[in-house]
């Protein structure tokens, strides 16, 4: 009737009542199309973050249990009476991973200094040491290297591995939150009008079965998703940085290969201190002064008097608990790398992937038998470029290129900050922790898809980035080191126990 107008003339295509109905429906269809694609991506990042986070935490728990089991079997009461020193080490490592204000290098230096104080008392049971004297002893840790080269190597390995692991997990969480915020689209009035014209004007013209032309749909989506398109450049740089850190996790910064043999490495350091105790003590006495000698009766207590019987048996590394429910870091990284590559160019590919849906356009076939905005005919306009600036020439959507979406601008900045942290982690440099506790996980974003109900994977058409991973050999021959160190422990155990009776009686 008279209420029908021609869309191409700039008027409404239906009656006011029908226009209101179809406007809401077109916005709903558009949002659902964006959500359907982006929620798969969000779910991927959310699930991988959870897997990595659980793996890293369980790895720390198992490393602590392994060390405790090994040292109880090897040192018995000597260890149990000093176990808080090692417990504190793992407390600080866990606190660092979850975002605590921990300087890894200073914390590890403090651990070795405290261990030296304990060991120095044990190997010099005939002397009385004040707290001030032991503080002087700790100052010689770096100079005398009483534990050999283990502290230096372990500090380098632990710092690089923990920085990479924590930063990578944070990157997954940041990506998850960015997708959640950016995918919560709300088209402008001009965008809504363009969507209405594309999706429902044909209905009012009696062309119910005619779908929009592909390039026509492309231009409408490029206009409605102009700000999302601007995210793409920073997003791609972020993904590349994640892939680089992933390679580090596979190679020299592999936290699994660092934490698994940490008990053997610390035991080797203790053995080294015992072997060189006389030289170390003499140099300390020269620098800190000669300590006071204890009375003879206080130092001479027999082993038999205390009822001690050594029950030493070698510790076998294969007895270690299985880490992270039987999985490994290599498998986790291999999986997430493939998903990261698929996520490349997601935002610039989004308009095309929406239009590839048969519900949204006719596709690239039947280009002469589709809705072009005014009739069932070919669409002749060229496809506009991606991003906000290119929409000045968009023939279908009026876009104010002077007013960028501030929510998306903030997400661009969040990606930029995270990318800088990833680059630092790739170089082995510590980075500040990003607190994501108040960030939305995307489950309450109003996206219309609960994470548990969404497909855990995603696929879309985008150019994938390929790269070769130079995997380093991470096999650690811990059994030989354990046998060597522990055999020395057996020889010195009795002496240490005597000393221990005096100092921790």
Notes on the structure:
The protein is mostly helical. It has a domain of 338 residues. It is built from 19 helices and 2 strands. It has a two-stranded antiparallel sheet with strand order 1-2. Helix 1 crosses helix 8, helix 1 runs parallel beside helix 13 and helix 8 runs antiparallel to helix 10. The longest helix has 60 residues. The protein starts with 15 loop residues before the first helix and ends with a helix. The relative contact order is 0.19. The N terminus and C terminus are likely disordered.
In short:
The protein is mostly helical and 505 residues long.
Whole-Å distance between the termini? 102 Å
Number of helices: 19
**How much helical structure, as a percent, in the residues?**
55-70%
Structural class: mainly alpha
Radius of gyration (Å): 33 Å
Sheet-strand content, in percent, reads under 5%
- H and E string: HHHHEHHHHHHHHHHEHHHHH
Model regions low in confidence, pLDDT < 50 over at least 5 residues: 1-12, 299-326, 436-505
In terms of quaternary structure, what is this? single chain
Biggest sheet character: 2 strands, antiparallel
Overall spatial form:
rod-shaped
Number of strands: 2
Q: Report mean pLDDT, rounded to a whole number.
A: 78
Strand order of the largest sheet: 1-2
Give the helices and strands, then pairings.
Blueprint: H1 16-75, H2 77-80, H3 83-97, H4 104-123, E1 127-128, H5 131-138, H6 141-144, H7 150-182, H8 189-199, H9 201-204, H10 214-224, H11 226-250, H12 255-259, H13 262-275, H14 277-288, E2 292-293, H15 296-299, H16 329-343, H17 346-355, H18 406-426, H19 478-503
Antiparallel strand pairs: 1-2
């Amino acid at each position: 009737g008279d209420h029908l107008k021609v869309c191409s003339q700039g008027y409404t295509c239906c009656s006011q009542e029908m226009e209101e109905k179809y406007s809401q429906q077109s916005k709903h269809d558009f949002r659902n199309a964006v959500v359907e694609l982006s929620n798969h991506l969000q779910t991927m990042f959310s699930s991988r973050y959870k897997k990595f986070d659980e793996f890293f935490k369980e790895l720390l728990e198992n490393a602590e249990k392994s060390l405790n089991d090994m040292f109880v079997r090897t040192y018995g009461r000597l260890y149990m009476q000093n176990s808080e020193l090692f417990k504190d080490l793992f407390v600080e490592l866990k606190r660092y991973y979850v975002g605590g204000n921990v300087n890894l290098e200073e914390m590890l230096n403090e651990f070795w200094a405290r261990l030296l104080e304990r060991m120095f008392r044990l190997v010099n049971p005939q002397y009385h040491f004040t707290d001030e004297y032991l503080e002087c002893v700790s100052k010689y840790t770096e100079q005398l290297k009483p534990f050999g080269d283990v502290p230096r190597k372990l500090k380098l390995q632990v710092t690089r591995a923990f920085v990479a692991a924590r930063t990578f997990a944070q990157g997954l969480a940041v990506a998850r939150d960015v997708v959640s915020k950016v995918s919560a689209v709300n088209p402008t009035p001009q965008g809504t009008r363009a969507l209405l014209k594309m999706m429902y004007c044909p209905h009012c013209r009696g062309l119910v079965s005619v779908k929009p032309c592909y390039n026509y749909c492309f231009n409408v989506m490029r206009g409605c998703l102009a700000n999302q398109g601007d995210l793409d450049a920073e997003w791609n740089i972020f993904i590349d940085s994640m892939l680089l850190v992933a390679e580090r996790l596979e190679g020299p910064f592999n936290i699994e290969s660092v934490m698994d043999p940490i008990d053997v490495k610390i035991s080797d350091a203790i053995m080294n201190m015992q072997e060189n105790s006389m030289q170390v003590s003499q140099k300390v006495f020269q620098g800190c002064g000669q300590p006071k000698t204890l009375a003879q009766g206080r130092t001479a207590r027999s082993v038999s008097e205390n009822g001690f019987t050594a029950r030493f048996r070698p510790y076998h590394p294969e007895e270690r608990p299985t880490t992270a429910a039987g999985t490994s870091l290599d498998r986790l990284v291999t999986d997430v790398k493939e998903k990261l590559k698929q996520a490349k160019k997601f935002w610039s590919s989004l308009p095309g992937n929406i239009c590839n849906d048969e519900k949204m356009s006719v596709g690239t076939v039947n280009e002469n038998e589709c809705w072009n905005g005014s009739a069932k005919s070919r669409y002749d306009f060229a496809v506009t470029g991606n991003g906000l600036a290119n929409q000045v020439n968009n023939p279908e959507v009026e876009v104010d290129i002077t007013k960028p979406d501030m929510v998306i601008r903030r997400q661009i900045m969040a990606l930029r900050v995270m990318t800088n942290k990833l680059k630092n982690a790739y170089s082995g440099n510590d980075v500040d922790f990003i607190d994501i506790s108040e960030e939305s996980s995307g489950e309450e974003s109003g996206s219309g898809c609960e994470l548990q109900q969404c497909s855990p994977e995603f696929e879309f058409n985008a150019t994938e980035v390929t790269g070769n991973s130079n995997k380093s050999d991470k096999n650690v021959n811990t059994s030989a080191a354990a046998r060597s160190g522990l055999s020395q422990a057996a020889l010195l155990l009795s002496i240490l126990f005597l000393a221990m009776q005096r100092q921790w009686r």
